[in-house]
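Changelog note: in this version the structure field was regenerated for every chain. One regenerated record is shown below for reference.
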Amino acid sequence: MGLFERLSQALNPQVDEPRDVERAQRISAAVLLLEMAHADHRHDDAEYAEIRRQLQSHFGLDAAETEELIAAAAPKAEQSVSLYKYLKTLNNGLSEGEKRQVLEMLWRVAYADHHIDAHEEHLLRELSELLYLPHEQFIRAKLAVTGE
């Protein structure tokens, strides 16, 4: 196998099993939630607790499964230079409604401390656009979470 083929395979791994697709989507969502928690450059226990709540609620996970998912996503979030791979996984596999739910999860993590930092809002706007959601959905998610 040549260099180009290996590089292409590394950047676009084949995910054939529905379970693998679902796991990739869960990890991708968890990576985005962890990035949101880091956006304000502070470690906030409320945001991490909200990540756990959102993952459990959205994916129907128990506490152990949630911790396993976070453990799988955390190194990816820490080492990632770009979120493109994770956004691509979500864009390719989720409907607009499901992506809107992910955006609302992101808002809930950002607002867990009852404050939206400028860095958090910037990242929320950017992720909303990269999920190809109309600005109206950004506003609706914000209102649903903050009431503002």
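Spot check on this record: The mean pLDDT is 91. Residues 53 and 66 are 9 Å apart (CA to CA).
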